[in-house]
Amino acid sequence: MTAPRFTKDHEWVRLDGDLVTVGISDYAQSQLGDVVYVKLPEPGRRVERGKEAAVVESVKAASEVYAPVSGEVVEINSALAADPAKVNADAMGEGWFLKVRLADPSELDGLMDEAAYLRFVEEQP
Amino acid sequence: MRYLPLTEADRGAMLEAIGVASVDALFAEVPPAARLDGLLDLPRAQGEIEVERAIGGMAARNVAAGSAPFFVGAGAYRHHVPAAVDHLIQRGEFLTSYTPYQPEVSQGTLQYLFEFQTQVALLTGMEVANASLYDGATACAEAVMMANRVTGRKRAVLAGALHPHYREVCATYARFVGFELATPGPMPGEDEDLARLVDDGTSCVVVQSPDFWGELRDWSALARMCHDKGALLVVVVTEILSLGLVRPPGEMGADIVAAEGQSLGNALNFGGPYLGLFASRDKFVRHMPGRLVGETVDAEGRRGWALTLSTREQHIRRERATSNICTNSGLCALAFTIHLALLGEAGLVRLARLNHAAAVRLAERVERVHGVRLVNRTFFNELALRLPCPAAAVVEALAARGVLAGVPVSRLYPDRPELADLLLVAATETVTEGDIDRLAAGLAEALS
Amino acid sequence: MNDWSRALRVPADGSPALSEATFSGNRGLQIEEKLIFEQDAPGRCGVDLPEPPPFRARLGGLERQGPIGLPGLSEPQVVRHFTRLSQKNYAIDSGLYPLGSCSMKHNPRLNEKLARLPGLADIHPLQPLSTVPGALELIDTLAHWLKTLTGMPAVALSPAAGAHGELCGIMTVRAALEARGDPRRRVLVPESAHGTNPATAAACGYQVDAVPADPRGRVDRAALEAKLGPDVAALMLTNPNTCGLFEGEIIEIAAAVHRAGAFFYCDGANFNAIVGRVRPSDLGIDCMHLNLHKTFSTPHGGGGPGSGPVALAAALAPYAPLPWLVHGAHGIEAIEHKTGPAAAAIGRLKGFHGQMGMFVRALAYMMSHGSDGLRQVAEDAVLNANYLRAALGDNLSVPFPGPCMHEVLFDDRFLKDTGVTTLDFAKALIDEGFHPMTIYFPLIVHGAMLVEPTETESKAGLDEFAAVVKALAAAARAGDTARFRGAPALAPRRRLDETAAARKPVLRWRPAAG
Lengths: 125, 448, 514
Description:
The complex is a heterotrimer of chains A (125), B (448) and C (514). Chain A has 125 residues and is an alpha+beta fold. Helices cover 19% and strands 35% of the residues of chain A. In chain A, the strands form two sheets. Chain A has a six-stranded antiparallel β-sheet. In chain A, strands 4-6-7 form a three-stranded antiparallel β-sheet. In chain A, strand 1 (5-6) and strand 2 form a beta hairpin. The termini of chain C are far apart. The chains are: A alpha+beta (125), B alpha/beta (448), C alpha/beta (514). Chains in contact: A-B, A-C, B-C.
């Protein structure tokens, strides 16, 4: 398992072979408040980098989660249906959203490492 | 002016506190070309006496349903509303309260809406209901749009026996929201073969029970055929009282129920405000339009209620909302809830039996009028009669003699001459033997 | 007196003392009331109905087989139940309801009396129109008032609420554009708009293009004009806008919209600020919905019913939804189908005629005020809001320069570094006996608080409100966070767990598994 890398939209990815696990960052979950529901795509669906892959809902807001990479969705975190609070409690671990079979490894190049992401978050208004 | 508390002294003091010389300064941003210097050409302020005289005069020119033998239905029904209902809904805490966005000070509204949602789910035999929509016709259109969302398809089949206003509202939404409708024509007295219109592109079939002609049907087989093709069954109910006696849509495989609740708690009101009921299955709840009240606890662990699943709605989701709906029909829903609480199981069943019994007596009586044929095999409290001549003229003639005989189908289907001899007549618990006699006598005379 | 004083003493952590726990859980007049389903006695009934004489059923064997599950209560129990529920509600009748863009004004009781006249309440929409000439006259009179107040030549009366009226308006725009063979794809909507605006545009198949606000809180005219093009169908603008400010450049904006071949839709939720002082037609507006349940006092009823008639310019009038009321050879006639002058109508948006019960109430309201009274309504509404702005502007933070119109917008900068949020501030207002203002709307300022007092608030009432708000603001700055975090402590319920309500929705009562 490689170290996580981050997008400007506060998603993280971890690479394991050709599978990429995707979630939202701890900063993102703290901004959302209590997560009440996560709408995940069907396994087998293809997602495209930069396009909506999932929706994460709090009581008073719904935010689109954009696919950081393109590929086929091979697994979704079905535990979130019964316990969406995992996203708040462990956004970087048990609160993962989906696993994508990575088609083009070069898509990972533009993503930030953790240090760069933390600096990016500090600069947020 | 009796509704304006500010005195001239108040206004002066307030302008001074604000630091302007006159209220005109507060309207300075209005472009001069758009400023109205004088009063618009409308009457000046009037006291209660004059307003009551004017509007009372308009009211007095209308024939109220209670003043004549009354058989008008076709989607809105005259029922007796117990006196307590109207007193309770006029309590200021119900009448003048707002949408319960601050639940701590809205538990009254939230609790009755939770009770309403439960009543609607129980009546329709469905799993979940919302806190009301504008009326039955818009609820029907919302049901079709929800079926489109759930199935990912864009073509709905509307039964010919669906109320024509409901068909027309669906058509308007279809044109502008962007979906298609298959709309077989009305076929009174015949069974429609709707299954043949269902294919892999169909999102739902919409049927009505009792249907526009008053006929009752078991939709279970159609439900199975829809489900086999991945489509949903939407059942519309325009006379909600029928569910006191008749098998509910939820027991016939319905996926969505869109209904008109006016019959309970609400007066005829010349067509509005009415009460849209909307119910479905738990698995579809996130696709439902309208407000939903959910149970929860407060910080002291006491049971309470709050609006929930709000991310479906426009104030949060904006252009991605399930619907643009904001307002519901709250006070009408309260009237429904109170009326049904007074009736309870025993009362609702008895009231439904009274309605059906009145319609049975009506049918037996008018079938004996020469030239009149009953179209229905079955009915609840409304039936279709075929006359030997255009029904509209008969209705006008009877109205002139003080009998409101029902709805000539040509009023709703003016372009279908083959339907012009059909008359819809409804009989509720408010109809007496004497009323039925006068209708029968009037028909006999008009047809002789 | 020592005992009473001890009971009134505020505990060290600053939250108001709660009364002693009672055996019943009730607190004086506040009763813990069960659901009706929890008060069932099988067979009990609150309505006496005769048993019908024997009859041969003609239900085709489709009788219900099992019980429905409805509870049985007597009339006294039902009256007590709903009376107790009502006592848990805040209402206009109880106090100031300063909700922005809602116009929570007094609901006159004359309106209720007249709406219940049998000649208006006990008439059916499909009885012969020859038997209801007074109803047609009433609707026509209301239409005349609305057309005169807006300056527009036509009005569509059937939409059941504001959002329904928006749908109606955008549908007529699309019909008009299609009729001229120029369909177009985009609708411009300010970022400050109410959510119904983009939801409506999207529902009608348009792409929504958001226009930012300028530093003065108005729509950014340069940005708006840059977005205009041959593919823009309409601009949807609220005026006065959701920041409570009049869009001063609205005539120029209307001209630009028209030059681009687009239509100008106005959301009329804030008409209370300008009624009788400005006519929308003079601003270049092509269609505008009115909220009878806002400007024209029909009661909010806990969330509805409403009524949202749409005033239409001549270019859009041919597309108005059915039914139409026209002046014919024999008086007022209804056109209920797409024939004659209504051949291009967009069809029906609702069953029957429209929200007649609300028409009666609104007309009674208009006739009571008259042209002079309605103009005074706008002036007093604007005066009241500016009075609050002057009273509170230094204690709270105002994002945009004034004056405001009928509502005043604050943001949460005054709460910076206090640990108190806009939500906390609102909940503390509840303990003080006031319904909170609108919060977190519009979205273009942080922690928005939108206050609309309306013209039916007295100066004394405004002074009371302002004093309390000032005291709360001072308490927040003094570090009294406990007052806010624990609020409301005195309402029928403390803060409700809305997270749990959304995670595990319980949307109906179910009997306990037996």
